Automatic annotation (TrEMBL):
Name of the protein described by the UniProt record: Diguanylate cyclase (GGDEF)-like protein
Ranges of residues in domain EAL: 29-282
Part of the full-length chain shown: 379 to 662 of 665
Length: 284
């Protein structure tokens, strides 16, 4: 069995033991999925929020919602250990719905308290290909009384390329509704530039793997600068994820990158902690 340490770094300390060599139908996997079904209903899934900051004004413009599973016996289970599993089953639908709804409810509370934060939610390929997805999202916005402009959806390149024509149509409906759309982990997948040009998206999130090594690896630094330029030429906002130190921050700023996210600014935090951090950053 693999032992995955979920470090104190991510605000949750715990050790999870899973056998990652099992196929989908193994009793362990089925057991975990069964537990996940229950966990969604019983509120064991919690969201942590990581801020995104504008590099020039140093204003906090929004947060990314990242799910964690607060398991009664296993401790905090990181998304990498259950999202890929859920993505292979229809369970990803109620899970994503729960994450969007929880993030929107939080956004509405923040708005009522004078904290203007856009919330970003990660969306899986399977969500994007689901017939009811757009209507579900629009219904949740109405139900929570949150303007569409306050919601951002992050979609990976591979999710789009699974069915580019269909993705383009779905993303078009979401964009028309006023939702901000980002391509996550950009550069790690294989979006053709021909498709990129036609996608109704607003942001490119440069994959962490390039950002993390841009101060030590010349070609990664060149790739980041090229992506920033490409994004700007296409009229897109560029976001760097995984900014871990001041040197990287300075390089990105010099490269003209618009927004940054990473441990150098703040780790993903529970809502209450994020509020304290945000208020301190704003000088409240
Ligand atoms: P992602 O969307 O690329 O999210 C960024 C990940 O990088 C997060 O890991 C975040 O905690 C981590 N991170 C942020 N800043 C830094 C940094 O400076 N250095 C390093 N090394 N890491 C940093 P997390 O929360 O464990 O999430 C992992 C992945 O799980 C996410 O990658 C996303 O693909 C998926 N995920 C998380 N929450 C959800 C969700 O609600 N729905 C779906 N479908 N996927 C989710
Ligand atoms: Ca993301
Ligand atoms: Ca990412
Ligand atoms: Ca990722």
């Amino acid at each position: 069995a693999d032992i995955a340490m979920y470090s104190a770094k991510d605000r949750g300390v715990g050790v999870c033991v899973f056998d990652t060599g099992l196929d989908d139908h193994s009793p362990e996997r089925l057991g975990l999925l069964g537990e996940l079904r229950r966990a969604i209903d019983s509120g064991e899934l919690v969201l942590h929020y990581q801020p995104k900051m504008a590099m020039v004004s140093e204003e906090v413009c929004g947060v990314e919602a990242l799910v964690r599973w607060q398991h009664p016996e296993r401790g905090i289970i990181p998304p990498a250990l259950f999202i890929p599993l859920a993505e292979r089953t229809p369970l990803i639908h109620p899970l994503t719905r729960y994450v969007i709804d929880t993030a929107l409810a939080q956004c509405a509370r923040w708005q009522a308290e004078g904290r203007t934060l856009q919330v970003a939610v990660n969306v899986s390929a399977r969500n994007l290909l689901d017939d009811g997805f757009v209507d579900d999202v629009l219904e949740l916005l109405v139900r929570r009384g949150v303007p569409a402009a306050c919601l951002e959806l992050e979609v990976t390149e591979s999710a789009i390329m699974a069915d580019p024509a269909r993705a383009q149509q779905i993303l078009g409906r979401l964009a028309d509704a006023g939702i901000t759309l980002s391509i996550d982990d950009f550069g790690a997948g294989y979006t053709s530039l021909a498709h990129l040009k036609d996608l109704p998206i607003h942001q490119l999130k440069i994959d962490r793997s390039f950002v993390a090594s841009m101060t030590t690896d010349r070609s990664d630094a060149l790739i980041v600068r090229a992506v920033v330029e490409l994004g700007h030429n296409l009229g897109l906002t560029t976001v760097a994820e995984g900014v871990e130190d001041e040197a990287t921050w300075q390089r990105l700023r010099a490269a003209g990158c618009d927004l940054a996210q990473g441990y150098h600014l703040a780790r993903p935090m529970p809502a209450s902690e994020l509020e304290g951090w945000y208020d301190a950053t704003r000088g409240v």
